[in-house]
Amino acid sequence: MAIDISSLFAKAGALLASDHTSVVSMNLFVALLCACIVIGHLLEENRWINESITALAIGLCTGIVILLTTGGKSSHLLVFSEELFFIYLLPPIIFNAGFQVKKKQFFHNFMTIVLFGAVGTLISFIIISLGAMQFFKKMNIGPLTIGDYLAIGAIFSATDSVCTLQVLNQDETPLLYSLVFGEGVVNDATSVVLFNAIQSFDLSHINSGIALQLVGNFLYLFISSTMLGVLAGLLSAYIIKKLYFGRHSTDREVALMILMAYFSYMLAELFYLSGILTVFFCGIVMSHYTWHNVTESSRVTTKHAFATLSFVAEIFIFLYVGMDALDIEKWRVVSDSLGKSVGVSAVLLGLILLGRAAFVFPLSFLSNLTKKSSYEKVDWKQQVTIWWAGLMRGAVSMALAYNQFTSSGGFTQLRENALMITSTITVVLFSTVAFGLMTKPLVRILLPSSKQLTRMISSEPSSPKSLILPFLNNETESETSQQGNTSIPRPTSLRMLLSAPSHTVHYYWRKFDNAFMRPVFGGRGFTPFVPGSPTERTEHQWQ
Amino acid sequence: MAIDISSLFAKAGALLASDHTSVVSMNLFVALLCACIVIGHLLEENRWINESITALAIGLCTGIVILLTTGGKSSHLLVFSEELFFIYLLPPIIFNAGFQVKKKQFFHNFMTIVLFGAVGTLISFIIISLGAMQFFKKMNIGPLTIGDYLAIGAIFSATDSVCTLQVLNQDETPLLYSLVFGEGVVNDATSVVLFNAIQSFDLSHINSGIALQLVGNFLYLFISSTMLGVLAGLLSAYIIKKLYFGRHSTDREVALMILMAYFSYMLAELFYLSGILTVFFCGIVMSHYTWHNVTESSRVTTKHAFATLSFVAEIFIFLYVGMDALDIEKWRVVSDSLGKSVGVSAVLLGLILLGRAAFVFPLSFLSNLTKKSSYEKVDWKQQVTIWWAGLMRGAVSMALAYNQFTSSGGFTQLRENALMITSTITVVLFSTVAFGLMTKPLVRILLPSSKQLTRMISSEPSSPKSLILPFLNNETESETSQQGNTSIPRPTSLRMLLSAPSHTVHYYWRKFDNAFMRPVFGGRGFTPFVPGSPTERTEHQWQ
């Protein structure tokens, strides 16, 4: 690669010669992305492989090729960049997840999700931090501070919500999907709070005051991030409803939705909130209100454009992690202590398994106590699946590890820091590949009821994501119940009757939604229809 | 702004503190983009303003605010970046233009377009270079080399195709649109060749050998760029047709189309070709073949997603140019010679007017000689409009000027270079605002036949771009003629009968297309339809 670059540089008459390094790497990257999509499509019906693993494998192969062609020199083109990840790649993935999530299912399990995401992450954090402290001191790794140990706890408590999305399917296992994915979103907020707290608070003497401060900080972060996302979503709905009524323009509507969503994320980052929580709730609100205020072609476009953006960003991340993993510079520093590096990775993987088990099973038990219906309880097979599906560590862990263990700017030469970086890479690769590979078969073995459905769906030759049509399913369902009886939602099943408490909340929310929210912000059934308006015309054009 | 940034930096406990400068500027930028879209929508029915001018004005206002809040300090957040422009903003705009262009109209006028774009740009380049040499020596500007003068010629011969797209309307004035826009695309290639040639060839002794080399270079660039774009488009069509048949996935299809288009652009940049020509022809081929191989929802999504990307990129560019214009550092160097700066800008504007007049009128006359039908001739009113609509200078000029007149990396302190940069900015702002403002009214006065149509269209409250549905119109039209008589295209009008030569080319092309191209690469009417395939199902879901 480097040979190519230098020969290209030597060429005379180059406009923009200074950009040519980035042009070469972008060419490589775009070509690899195309390859991932095509190969991922070909391997689709394979029951083990998913797109993340394909991308990781292609990334690793490319890394090897680069390593060989450059003769073992490091290639700085391919070093993992926190900024790229947090500012460009993560927002579309999380926004799309919020936009396409089954809202009913999500809010139905809201308490369990928060319990898993907040309390669970804290338990996992404590276990991993204490365990690392115990083991690493014995292994004589180097002078890690108490802050480093706590950071390790936070880094390895951050589950990979991107990978979870790929492994579980919203249509096959809706309950598990909403629990594991919802947990992942809250988990991210918790990890970021913990990580921030570790970097800013004086941790040498922890007392109850600081603990309270931490709890307050978390609550502030959670509530303000959510509110910001909801406000941004409502603002977009209001603007599009008021300004665009009767004179729709698909391009402007789509542009405004994308920009407002991105703005909410960046605003959250600006105020040191959790951008992930913000953009997730912004996505939910946009799919509930804004999406119903736009033209039919805007709806199709946004639905698929967001899914595509998210899809490309996911592949990008895994490709990136795969390529970065072989960056030789990091491995050179730890090459004399390879055994120690393997040991550290093994200990961390063990702690991750233990830390997750330590909260999934007790908290599921607690959650089951509050449910009356056996339909709603999380049985042990589902508990094992939840435990397993959340074991993967991904780009968030990588980004936090880089933040903690590299000195500002360049790569640190300190041996213990290099060791932690390489161990993080090992854990991320191993957990994504090994745990990821086994999740699909595990889900099929443990939850045979979903096996039939899986077969049925995989006989429809389409990607899992394009099959997820949450709005249509969701809206049709709620529309039926609404049309049946407008004042009191009709209990469509025994399950709905039995789940009285959350049903009540849902009933009052819908009442409020219909009386106040929808008339102001639009939403299904509340967008005035003008015969012969451009809306209608656009629809006809596509029929 | 700077106060905000520093206070934010001071905040403790910042995750990703190093990225915060970019977070702040991105917030500002995204907010301004939203504002531009909303304000542009509100001002839509105004007959003078267009979206570019709105964005320029908002950019200028923001620049003033930044200047005032920082107390006159330069803000390096907002310096124009060539890389950002050429790698991220320009490709989607040009690709979308190719994707949405009326192919029949474009190829019908192909020879005229190439004549205007290649020969015309050369004439304009010579006039501006010679004129600048004459005037600037008298004005005692500083030690500019012959290379600098020729670069000035190339810089100010590059018309702004982005702005042209906004001012002319494909449905109102199809002939003018295809002439002016097509010219703009070819013009870009010519300008880049000229600029490269100036930077690489030894210009002190120009002889016929070098001149021939330049011509050869241009032909090589034009043909290879076009071929690359066509090949990339055909490859995407082939991949999607072969791999995706019967198992469509909207997300993968859309992602593949976007990535392949971008890949073609980057590949062209890698081989020092004209990425703009490449991506333009890639867009044309994709809309002719690939677009017909995908699902109905992919079609809606790609059409609007590409238009939206292009729309946002356009606004971004004008906002950027507006904000960058007030960067104080550049102006400080020339502040003692403000009169000279105004003089230089005025001379350049005069030369632009003259240089364009010098080729539009003679070449139109030549072009008219080859046409038999009076329908096809470009009358003098249209000639004036073509002359006027191509006077705007934009981001390409800015990028080339920065490339020539700033030393690598930072801003040069040389007075004559600073003078050229500020003059370029002045010319770009003035031509975009003054000429841009007057184009719409001019078109209405000169071409009253389109006035009615304009009124009719502007009563339909939608952006010009979302109204352009070239495929539908175009395809329906050609379908009718095709269904009428499959072996010999039916002459639908007197005009078509008279335009025999280009008609013949079109006839043989269609025969070849139907016999060889479409069976291999797909395209309208050649995508096998399987009842009950996901394609059909997806369509029904959206109906």
UniProtKB/TrEMBL annotation, chains A, B:
Domain Cation/H+ exchanger transmembrane positions: 31-444
Compartments in which it is found: Membrane
Pfam families named among the record's database cross-references: Na_H_Exchanger
Major location category of this protein: membrane
Cross-referenced InterPro entries: Cation/H_exchanger_CPA1, Cation/H_exchanger_TM, NaH_exchanger
Gene Ontology terms for molecular function: potassium:proton antiporter activity; sodium:proton antiporter activity
UniProt membrane topology term: Multi-pass membrane protein
Record-level GO cellular component terms: plasma membrane
Transmembrane segments: 23-43, 55-72, 84-101, 113-137, 218-240, 261-286, 306-323, 344-366, 386-405, 417-438
Alphabetically ordered keywords of this record: Ion transport, Membrane, Potassium, Potassium transport, Sodium, Sodium transport, Transmembrane, Transmembrane helix, Transport
Cleaved signal peptide residues: none
The reaction(s) this protein catalyses: K(+)(in) + H(+)(out) = K(+)(out) + H(+)(in); Na(+)(in) + H(+)(out) = Na(+)(out) + H(+)(in)
Biological process per Gene Ontology, one example term: sodium ion import across plasma membrane
Name this protein carries in UniProt: Cation/H+ exchanger transmembrane domain-containing protein
Organism field: Rubroshorea leprosula
